[in-house]
Amino acid sequence: MGKMKFLLVAVVLIIAMSAGAASAADTAANLKAAITVWAWPSADKAFESIIAGFNQRYPGIQVTWDMKAGMAAGTRDALLAALAAGSGGPDVVLIEINDIGMYALHGGFVDLRKPPYNAGKYKNDFVGYKWDLATAPDGAMFAFPWDIGPAGVFYRRDLLDKAGVPSDPDRLSKLIRTWDDFYAVGKKVNDPKNKIWWTDNARGIPYIYFSHKNFFDKNMNIAIDNPTTRKVLAIAAKIRGAGMDAQASLWTDEWYTMLNTGRVATTIVGCWFGGFLKSWIAKDTGGKWGVIPVPEQPLQNWGGSFLAVPQTSENPEAAWKFIEYVCADANAENTIMKTVDYFPAYKPAWKDPLYDESDPFFGGQKTRRLWANIATSQGPFVVSPLDALAEQAFGVELDKFLDQKLDVDATIKAMVDSIDKKTAADRKVVLQLMGKR
Amino acid sequence: MKIPRNQIGKYATAYVYVAPFFLLFLVFGLFPILYSLFLSFTYWKGFGKPVFVAFDNYKALFQDQTFYKALYNTAFIWIVAHLIILPGGFIIAYLLNTEYVTRKNFFQAVFFTPLVTSTIAVSLVFSILFGEQFGVLNFFLERIGLQPVPWFHGDGRWIKPVIILLFSWRWIGWNMVIYFAGMQGIDNELYECAAVEGANKLQILGRITVPLMKPVILYTLVLSFIGGIQIFDEPFILTGGGAGYMGGTNQAGLTLAVQLYEIGFRTGNMGTASALAYTLMAIIGALSAFSIRMFAGQRRTRT
Fold first, then answer.
1. Which terminus of chain A is more exposed, N or C, with fewer CB under 10 A?
2. Is A156 on the interface with B (CB under 8 A)?
3. pLDDT < 50 regions, chain B
4. Cα–Cα distance between A93 and A310 in angstroms, integer?
5. A208-230: average pLDDT
6. Would you say the pTM of this structure is higher than 0.80?
7. What integer pLDDT is reported at residue A106 of this predicted model?
8. What's the fold here for domain A151-301+380-435?
9. CA–CA min distance A424, chain B (Å)
10. Is A400 close to B250, i.e. CB distance below 8 A?
11. Which CATH entry fits the domain spanning A2-149+302-356: 3.40.50.1820, 2.10.25.10, 1.10.3660.10, 3.40.190.10?
């Protein structure tokens, strides 16, 4: 199997090489530079899988990568220190979606719209919301989109079968079109006496609706006081009240155990979670999983990352060539996806037959096509640099609401107040920057 | 105090010898301290020119309910935890110092181990103990017919006790070692003398050990003021997880140091974070001065 995989990668690389040779108009092919990339695992495996292809196209660019301890947060803290010091930073850095807004206001990155990078030409090739996230309020492109995390409802086929609910994803997604459907189906599966719950935590429903988005409108007014918010809060409270969620804390051993041993029937997460399940959370549950879109509003995203070039880089052009290859080359993107399951934001990559393969871990479902469809479906997706900040305030009130059974309207009011206070200073700056656009 | 010129020349070699510390301190100690004071009056995201905003950061901080919540949490955790740690450490040290306990080194090591254990391992053990549906403690509670405890949910009332437990478990050994060292320094003749005079164990403890240990107790108290107010690891491990914000439900476990981290690194507002850091420093300074004065005053009246 390992050998087969290697052969496959080699074939893809050879194709990539010849494709690179075909567009030999690239004058940068003889760029000579050594660049450093700061990131966190498993990006090292992703880079390993494509570095040969990259060096075929740019033999003069030598790439080394430094995986930071503490994953995304550790990389961020190290980068903040390097940027504040004004030296010692990398040429390319990996940025997680939760930090992207902070960096949009932070400054200190190369604007990739400008020549010689001209990243703007790729705009239509990328998922819309992802491109918006990489654009600062003044229009500067301070980062470049790598992978996305289209989100859906992951479910356990075995638990649904046991309850007599159709476990085929096509039939189930027709059965669960609204949140009321979600509740009704859940009623049949839920069995708390035997420690089996319909979902891991009811907070996941309101959370996914505001995951990196929709806290503000385009003019930076707080935009959460609306019927949609009321609806998702109410359904979450209804599910909690009916004892249909395990009240699990995410990213704890207990949560992993529940997923692994079939104690919770559903969890709402980003597509990368499939890789987590396969590789370490629930290795031995192959064939028992399925995914359907989030009811009522399928355009949802959780997670994803960007690559950026700090202004302190001495080789920004070589750095850009690396980013361009990693993020906007269909062959490289698909090699990475096969290696580490990073779902590309670069839409041309999705034409590959790879996306219509069925995934045995998910009972033969064509999950990649589903993720692509989710990422390009219609729906509200307004991003701002202050989403992560607003998300903290929102999360605090959301848990109070569910844990202490508070009133929906009072909760929304508390959320608006808290977001307003938390983002006041930064909002002024965002508006100023928007004026410069 | 002015040092005459010729004196500097006379001790030039000595100054060269102590220079490395002071140079390092200037660059890595004093400069950041003063620079963050400056930053606390600016809007700064960590890059580019800080924008002067006068007292806006302090105003925003003191108008934010979260700050008072964190202040209350910190004080609560600090006081309850130290009611366990300081007397507990003292009692353990006292018992170890008596002739009833053999293998003193072994017990010292046992009590000291939690402090040098990796926080990751500790957090793993605690998450297994305090799991809500499948945790060890709830398993036993259910076995004896009680309701399982929602450790990290509900109104968050269990979060502080869990943090206090973890904090005490980690730090009791540290204080025990310091007390033990202090007790070893007390002259045995005093004890023998008291025994000859017919004093019982309790009298010896109250009249000899505790008074002579006063400087050591003061030392642990001052260290506790500083360390306790900066409590970070335990709440961070236990409540920094999946919810996307720090402190757990109702932010019941949010301490000042955790809030500082959240403002500084999660939101990147270095100005507000610096303002909080200076507020924290003022609190620690005031409490340390208070405790030193309290003990110093007492000693003067005694002698």
1. N
2. no
3. 300-303
4. 8
5. 95
6. yes
7. 86
8. D-Maltodextrin-Binding Protein; domain 2 (3.40.190)
9. 9
10. yes
11. 3.40.190.10
